[in-house]
Amino acid sequence: IDDVVKIQAFIRANKARDDYKTLINAENPPMAVVRKFVHLLDHSDQDFQEELELMRLREEVVTNIRSNQQLENDLNLMDIKIGLLVKNKITLQEVVSHSKKLTKKNKTQLSDMMMMNKQRGGLKALSKEKRVKLEAYQHLFYLLQTNPTYLAKLIFQMPQNKSTKFMDSVIFTLYNYASNQREEYLLLKLFKTALQEEIKSKVDQMKEIVTGNPTVIKMVVSFHRGARGQNALRQILAPVVKEIMDDKTLNIKTDPVDIYKGWVNQMETETGEASKLPYDVTPEQAMAHEEVRTRLEASIKNMKSITDKFLSAIIVSVDKIPYGMRFISKVLKDTLHEKFPDSTEDELLK
């Protein structure tokens, strides 16, 4: 019997080895062979451990990136301050040394010259040539305002790092930050034309409108971060935010370790004795406790409920969202539909 068992084991091992070779090397292995090895695809503890390790590493990378960005910003600011310090020191020394050279007569002449320059300025003092030039500028700005094609083409040709400064210093100023209805209408026309131009020229895949950080979208967001946008945001979301902040019993932690520590602290507070459970645990060890799993499920349920409240608040308050944002959303949807006619409604709405 022992010999028979050995022979059977040997035959089975050889058969399993042949099947595995067929699975690895054959282009289309038979179903019977595939079925034997399907169980290997089941999730194991090792997969879970690797997933946790990957999440930890991702968190670490993101933290380091943020830290590096902050350091770079601080370094740039320090460079500017050092530069200003050196420049101002030199300028101050020059002024002091130069003022010593001025005699009383020179100071009087300098004062007279400054007074003449002051009198020379102003619109009344314009020469004929300067008046012509001023009128030409007025026509230029009128054309730039009323025909958005020129600025629209210029906006998305700007490098990303310079576009924000360009928009704040030139475009928003040119439209006087949409302080009246006419200027707001013209600025929206510019946003519309620029967005259509950018999508037609630069967006090759639907997802690029999110991942590519389009200049025009950035510009629209930047514009609506002013008082109007903030007031709308406060009206729409303030009640929900206040309700959540006032609810001291609300628990929306979804980290098993945090939930476990909170549970241990609560037990110690209630009993007045140190808990026998270890304080520092891994997520898997924390999840081994029934209480932690129950609390985690409750937290996830709370989180979903809160998310629904925010979503409902936004949906029922569409009319309170600034018209400019809704209009640009419509332009975005229509232009994307035109560029990608085969895309589904769900993809467009996302």
Automatic annotation (TrEMBL):
Domain Ras-GAP: 169-350
Name recorded for this polypeptide: Ras GTPase-activating-like protein iqgap1
PROSITE patterns: IQ, RAS_GTPASE_ACTIV_2
Coiled coil: none
Source organism per UniProt: Ataeniobius toweri
Family matches, as InterPro entries: RasGAP_dom (IPR001936), Rho_GTPase_activation_prot (IPR008936)
SUPFAM superfamilies: GTPase activation domain, GAP
Top-level taxon of origin: Eukaryota
